[in-house]
Amino acid sequence: MTPRVTFAVAARVLAQLRRDHRTVAMLILLPALLVSLMWWMFTDSPMVFDRVGGPLLAVFPSIIMFVVTSVATLRERSSGTLSRLFTMPMGKLDFLLGYALAFALIAVVQALVVVSIALYLLDLDIQGAAWQLGVVAVLDGVLGTALGLFASAFAATEFQAVQMMPAVMIPQILLCGLLVPRDQLPTVLHALSDVLPLSYAVDAVIGVANGNGFTTGTGGDTLVVLGFILAALGLGAATLKRRTA
Amino acid sequence: MMKNAVSCRDVVVVRGDREVLHGVGFDLRAGSVTGLLGPSGCGKTTLIRAIVGLQARVTGDVSVLGLPAGAPKLRGRIGYVTQEPSVYGDLTVTENLRFFAAVLGVPSSDVERVVEAVDLTSHADARVDQLSGGQRSRASLAAALLGSPELLVLDEPTVGLDPVLRRDLWNLFHQLADAGATLLVSSHVMDEASRCDRLLLMRDGELLADDTPQDLLLSAGTSDIEQAFLTLIDRKAGAR
């Protein structure tokens, strides 16, 4: 791994995003719009919004980041730029970390927007600190990015990559505690949800919302999310092949 | 100085359940321009990918600049141009080259030099996806020239270019070779053969000839490289 190369990849990805206004708008505004839609749906029962609003701050950013990044390495493969980069002194981890870094920056802006709108415009009621909710929302966006990059390294074509969203993300959304609290799931499903990254992303948000700070319980969930991010990037680098048929 | 920049012995490549290279062997002398000619589908790109270390399931011996092909120490010492222009369409020519220069760790002052070398100075700030096909492939070639690599492997770099530009690029290739670089240039256009120091003729995953253009024509008893190619195919069929 070479920091010079990692940062070069990140800067290039951001330069490309700067030209693609529609994608930037989707990444930054869509989570906020979707949360607002949920608020509107539950306008007559604000208690429900207070319960699901937090978890949504984890779920929407990670899904949207996943979709965008899952085609990223495939695009580079089909354009031949990945082949060129592999003949240069670029580690596979440089490539994935560069992407992760660029999208982490987007995730910061995304989290600022969605958390501000949820707390100050939609009056989402939380016990914990707003900045901690922001940190967790950023990590959840980065989690979606890392899982997307892993899926992207795994898929052989862009066609296969878009199929990863329903295959990888929807089961996690169903089991993460958004629809049914995880401790009320059947035993087998509860055990299954214990190994899924999004479960911890949602637990962390719920923890902050319930007033548990990083030092009082939520820190553990946050660290697990961080662990999943690093594992997904490491596995993605291991899966990405220099030599192909 | 090293005599051979590339040395291949009994190179076999399998793709899927099909063998696409059947024991290819040749040497590329350092400082020479070698043409890799043959019809589309004969295995040129596979051979090139084996040399730059991107092809899976290669057996036999491929040695590049004294190291096994694909060795980490070779990264950055080989300039590779894929058939499709491998540059980012949504960035300008200069942005593309600055990025690749940063990955290679060469100073960004090198960008200006390579843009000039491929005659794209007037389009340096144009987005690549707004350029013509020929300009795009020159942008891709420029990226391969960054850092003055010792070996340049170019997969059909002159396709679709006008004759004047093609002549200029071949002149550039010889200038680079005179400066010590080794070039392997693939083409399916036989009339580019006379511009090479040496020719490799390929067909169906086998090497038909490895010779200078002059000696190739002499041994086939013709003045036309396309005719020489046909004569070699007939001889090979007769020998079976």
From TrEMBL, chain A:
**Which top-level group of life is the source organism from?**
Bacteria
Give the GO biological process terms.
Answer: response to antibiotic
List residues of the ABC transmembrane type-2 domain. 14-243
Segments passing through the bilayer: 24-42, 54-74, 95-122, 128-150, 162-180, 222-240
Give the UniProt keywords, A-Z. Answer: Antibiotic resistance, Cell membrane, Membrane, Transmembrane, Transmembrane helix, Transport
| Topology with respect to the bilayer | Multi-pass membrane protein
One term under GO cellular component: ATP-binding cassette (ABC) transporter complex
* Gene Ontology molecular function, alphabetical: ABC-type transporter activity
In terms of Pfam families, this protein maps to: ABC2_membrane
Subcellular location as annotated = Cell membrane
- Identify its protein family: Belongs to the ABC-2 integral membrane protein family.
State what protein this is by name: Transport permease protein
Source organism: Kribbella soli
UniProtKB/TrEMBL annotation, chain B:
What SMART domains does the record point to? AAA
Q: What SUPFAM superfamilies is this protein classified in?
A: P-loop containing nucleoside triphosphate hydrolases
Keywords per UniProt: ATP-binding, Nucleotide-binding
In its keyword annotation, does this UniProt entry include Nucleotide-binding? yes
Would the keyword Nucleotide-binding be found if you checked this record's keyword annotation?
A: yes
> What's the short name of a Pfam family annotated to this entry?
ABC_tran
Domain ABC transporter residue range list: 6-229
Question: Which molecular function GO terms apply here?
Answer: ATP binding; ATP hydrolysis activity
Q: What is this protein called?
A: ABC transporter ATP-binding protein
